[in-house]
Amino acid sequence: MGKDKIDFVLINPGDRKQVYQGLAKDFSAIEPPFWVAVLAAFLRNNGFSVEIIDANAENITPDIVAERVNDINPYLSAVIVYGSQPSASTQNMMIAGKICKALKDNTSTRVAIGGLHPSALPKRTLEDEEVDFVIEGEGPYTLKGLIEIIKGNKNNYTKVPGLWFQENGNIKKTTKAALIKDVNEMLPIAAWDLLPMEKYRAHNWHCFDGINNRMPYGVIYTSIGCPYSCVFCCINAPFGKAGIRFRSPELAVNEIGLLVSRYGIKNIKIADELFILKEKHYMTILDLLIQRGYELNMWAYARIDTVKPENLKKMKNAGINWLALGIESANSDVRDGASKKMKVNDINKIVKTIQNEGIRIIGNYIFGLPDDTVETMEETLNMAIDLNCEFANFYSAMAYPGSRLYDIALKENWKLPEKWHGFSQHSYETLPLPTKYISAKEVLKFRDEAFNRYYKNQDYLEMIEGRFGKNVRKHIQYMTKNKIKRKILALNDY
After folding, report:
1. What are phi and psi of 108, to 5 degrees?
2. pLDDT digits over 150-169, tens only?
3. Which domains does the chain have, with CATH numbers?
4. What is the pTM of this model?
């Protein structure tokens, strides 16, 4: 007698070595796939049986994924392509495609793919990948409707919103799925029990106060979407427009409580695109966390112009030890050209105010925005060095599918990566955009040199040693010895 079928297997794809090269082993985070676990919880709450395979965390090949799926015997396998930041969806499409092919070649399951990248490019995804269905949009109700059709042997998918499929060689799409109104229903407490919780690891900088204590690690969203429309960002692709919707503060804090009590997690990322935005929302969460006294080590995203100094003490008391700030560029004209509508006069003052409350800063900078020159990029790097934040991320501008930059790149016929992992910031195939004034090669060369200039700067290393000790200084020095290779820096035609 064969094993009883279950309804769903949800698969989180990933290839850390391809995406991060040598940085994957010791420095990058291994994040739990929150969106996969939330979808699983939603489906389970609606009476369906679900399992999860986190191929990224378990570091398993597409063939092994297929073997596992055969053992589980689902009606539908859904590869959900999100990630720890917006680019992660596109950079994981290569391995996602290989997993889909392995499933089609070696199993009898129907195969769907969804997430940010498939929502941004649903038609192309259906054409390029070996799948039965592409899910466009948020996904919960599309998956629910799809499994009901499959289990009923009806084969009439036209009434399932947010679905792309092929019929008699023709591409078909249904009406777009409406945005979900009840965010608490869409984002219930995630199905953490279906994940390999022992596998997850925080970012190195997140644990500078305890560099050897990066595990266990949790991720939580308290809102979805973003109200801003920065030209380089693709985060709103599944939603079709800019906007933000909030989970109830009580639900979010209950989920943090579960991570603490059941899994012993103290290191937590608040993954909202902008947690420090709606004061009533985040302050209620902070108050509830302080009441519960969890002693957390959390980090969250903020904008320079959304930080209110009077709220910093409460953030720190609640366990927010790090804020990630999207500074992007020192040049206001470059920021304006990227639609980064930031009203701020003194970045340095705000940074120092945050640090004076004991909160550390990850400064995020982008080189190669449309109006960048070598001079404006140098201006940005000099500002980063002067600010001397506890950590800094240096990005090259990319035309991520789902962003307005992607549309501009297609219109202007700019050269884009040949393979999806070329959209990763740290891969061998990385290919950023040119600007109006300089080539893609010049942008990437500057970015990689900026990384070394920042982390080898003596003022930075002395600050790190003073705040976190000699071991963290040695860790940073070890990090800079991991040279990442770049294809375009060895070629002449860029």
Report:
1. -100, 5
2. 998 887 899 999 999 999 88
3. 6-173 (3.40.50.280), 201-397+432-490 (3.20.20.70)
4. 0.94
